[in-house]
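Issue: copy button drops trailing tokens. Both records pasted manually instead:
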Amino acid sequence: MEAVVEAVSEVIGQAAGLDPIQKLFLNAIRDYSLKS
């Protein structure tokens, strides 16, 4: 699971071109992964 969190965080780090809804979605996935 940590690898997934890392990958998602990396995507978020490069997500300047994404729209806000996609960013919120990625952040929600990361937060959920960190909690579980």
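Record 2 (pasted manually too):
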Amino acid sequence: MSTPAAARIADLLEDVPTASNPPARFPAPAPDRPPRTDGPTLNITVIWGDIAQIAADLHVTGHYQSVVPAAAELALDRAISVDPRRVITEHTKLGWIDAQLGEVTYFPCKEGPVRCAAVVGMGPMGTLTERRAVQMYASLLGEALGLGHVGTMTTVLIGSGTGNLTVKQAARALVRGFADALAPLGPPAPPPGLTDVLVMEVDRLRAEQLHLALTDSASKLPQLRIVPWLREESGGELFGPSAAVYALSALTRLAGTVGAAAGDGTPGSSGAGPDPPAGADVLQTVLAGFDADIQGMIREQLADLASVERTELSLAVRRPAEAQDDAVPVRMSVQSGVGGLRWAALTGRATVPERLVPVDMDLLRELVDRLTEPSVKDACELPDLLSRFVVPQDFQRLLTDDSTVLLELDRDTASVPWEFLAEIQQAGADKRDPLAIRTQLSRQLRTTYSRVMTESLADGPLRALVIGDPGDPEKGFHLPGARQEALAVASRLKELGAKVSLFVGAANSLRQPGVDPARRLDVLRVLLCGGNHIVHYCGHSDFDLSGTGRRSGWVFADGLLTAQELALLERPPLIVVANACYTARLGDAAGPGTPATEPALAGRSPWGNPQAALVPSLADEFLRMGVGHYIGAAWRIPDDQGISFADQFYTHLFQGGPGEATPTVGGAVRAARRRLYGLRAADGQEQGADSTADPSAPSTPSGPNGAAGPVGPAGRDVTSGGQRWSSWAAYQHYGDAADPFVRPGGS
């Protein structure tokens, strides 16, 4: 019975001490540091309840770098924030919480049980080992002891909530860290004001496990006193997997009683035939549907429960456990490393620790190159290789459509077209749609800077700025298709109720009747002064070759418009959508047809493909200025498909989808990808899935945005057939896919 519930039971029962598997005792202090009996004593009480519903002087949870709050941290965020805002979540998205290991960030409160909230840094996800957890707990308690007004601190078992550490490991780290912080506080130092720490656990079974683990770990440390009973407060729950363990425990006790009665000849026994099964036999029958490893762990846990002297507590079996897990996105970190990639993952029920996975970089470079604006053949055959060759096996099982997927990347790994990722299937099984089609998949750049807190755009009508074909036609940057997309997007946004500012064509190009030309200064004026919620750009983009930094921007007739010009933007747009193709395809600023030169530092990528590096660079520039979401095309898109993507994206963004209470940006991106993915069937009937053009054939004017369709790197076919087949994967979304889109009050 390999199900999410069964897996959750496995998590709950992992590495729990039992009578048959006694835990390693916490080592006694070294001879030169005997146990202190005259210093302060810290009382630790394990409470079954909700951390946000119990009063204390200080409430603390853990916080991974760049990971938005979930579980206990989210409950704390809700408790201190005014609806619908989430202060800790906002600070996380802005990069204001550094979350270095042991660093404490405070959020003052005024009313209610939570009077002062704090988060203690856990470092990057996947890096919290037991040794580092000891340092984190020592830092946390050391700082709390220095706060004169704190007499009671409430926390949770930090590090165990998502499976990074077992309950026993995290409890041992807490005890060792707290003991280290208390060590210097003997006489003649004044006693600390902090005397009580309340460790909360919302699930009943985990609360028992926690109490047992803390009691065992602190048994020889007089500085720490574990209150010998489990305390009940408001908000405690009994999730499904825990209820299953308790039910099996009751069945086993009942079976044991019946078996003993039968053996003693107690009335009720038939006296003939085989004896009724003993408790162990009944348990074997009940557990027959579970995986073998889960059976063993449940047996151990049931034996452990038999030794627990439980208090009379009110139990309520509820249903939200699995739903809560599904609501937490799968966060997967992929960073460049020496000779490979550094992977880590964090889900609603598990953490995969960070590690370096060796990869042949030459093969990876070729794979990235062939999946960037791929031929039809490569688009059909290589995504499965991307999933199997690049993604480690224990990460492959996380690539399902059960939850939103958020990829945390650096500027190098962002060059990989991760939108092609597919769920690994058994040999001979039918292929499923790519992950980005079945669920919301977005990207987040790991950066060293913090975004700025900007003025809200909640008031007034929804405003949009649309820019089309601003390049200089005399230099070959003339895109009729970009004009068509800009006009179509402006028309659709007006139909949806937005107030639109439209700029189309360069000043020296053929003018669009009744539409202002797209001069860089005029566009900048509307950006800085117009308070636009949405910016949609169709045209060319390029790297800034004038400097040594990795800057990029949008091509206008009179130069690049980069995020540097937007540095004074007080109210940056929430969403930027850019269908911007790489200018080097058509020649550099010297004019069309100019031989391509070696990319400057700005355009260099370890994968050798500047086109693959352009969208991450643009996204980085705009997100740095406070833009919430950047959605860009990584290669050229056929004219009609660019219009189709934009139409579906904005329709879903404004009107939502079936069963969606509030539209999300990630939901709108997925709906638009699905629209283009569905168009492949008609395109395939015309061209065929295995067809490729003759690499020696001349370019044709059938490329996207009215541009010619030249041959791609290594002579690959990149004419409109390949683009049409894979255009859904070209659109990359940088931002939190789960962000709701709420129209301003005046719209």
